[in-house]
Write a structure and sequence with these properties.
With 256 residues, the chain is an alpha/beta fold. It contains 7 helices and 7 strands; from the N terminus they run βαβαβαβαβαβααβ.
Length: 256
């Protein structure tokens, strides 16, 4: 069963990682998708592979004109009614070693980019009478770690922005939710530096689900939120973290 027939979506950061998995899954379920990404080579290649259901749009999510172009392109495909704000960058550094310029670049992409996406979607989704905005935050938008001051700040902000937008836009039939992945095996998550096997052994062994997550597992959460099956869900956090926030298994405790 195709669950997104009649939907047209923009997926930012759609050329790789979680974004690519989301694009592929949405197309599989009948959606037309604008693949929005700063990486033209990867984005064009994916659009060519997936065919007429997709189109690539170069996008720096912090630039308003790029959002205007993406929305215009989405409207040429059909009724624009799904947005996945997925694009993000990670900066790992202590606060004292993070420059204001580095901090603000994280904010511009992860936080301002999400704001710009929501803002650009309001009028077309109001006209459609229905819409789903899915903001990909992080487990680090619910807790934090040393060295993630900039990244975690931006992801907490996405969570708060999601709730505010949900309150404002629900009256127009537009739902706004946030997705909070745990560790996912992507380039951002360290896949270019560590094998999946080593990552599972050294970092995830004590997690309730003792392995790193896969991009498709997050894409399925966004699939649900994009469908009309999620029609009564808004302003909520959807966590897919392998149980990370529940707590880790202590080998000194029973049943561990």
């Amino acid at each position: 069963m195709k669950r997104l027939t009649g939907k047209t979506a923009i997926v930012t950061g759609g050329a790789s990682g979680i974004g690519e998995a989301t694009v592929r899954l949405f197309v599989e379920h009948g959606a037309k998708v604008v693949i929005a990404d700063i990486d033209e080579q990867l984005g064009q290649a994916l659009a060519e592979e997936l065919g007429e259901m997709t189109v690539f749009q170069y996008m720096d999510v912090s630039i308003e004109e790029d959002w205007t172009a993406a929305v215009t392109k989405a409207q040429t495909l059909g009724t624009y009614n799904v947005l996945v704000n997925n694009a993000a960058i990670l900066h790992m550094s202590s606060i004292i070693d993070t420059s204001p310029e580095e901090y603000m670049r994280i904010i511009e992409v992860n936080q301002l980019g999400t704001f710009m996406g929501i803002r650009s979607a309001i009028e077309p989704m109001k006209a459609a009478g229905i819409g789903s905005i899915i903001n990909v935050s992080s487990v680090d938008g619910l807790h934090s770690s040393a060295g993630l001051g900039a990244y975690s700040s931006s992801k907490w902000a996405v969570r708060g922005l999601t709730k505010s937008a949900a309150i404002e836009l629900g009256q127009y039939g537009i739902r706004v939710n946030s997705v909070h992945p745990g560790g996912i095996y992507t380039k951002m998550g360290g896949a270019d530096r560590t094998s999946e096997k080593d990552m599972n052994r050294t970092y995830y062994a004590k997690h309730p689900i003792p392995r790193v997550g896969q991009p498709l597992e997050i894409a399925y959460v966004s699939l649900f939120l994009a469908t009309d099956e999620a029609s009564y869900s808004t302003g909520s956090e959807f966590i897919a973290d392998g149980g990370w926030l529940a707590g880790l298994r202590d080998p000194d405790m029973p049943c561990s």
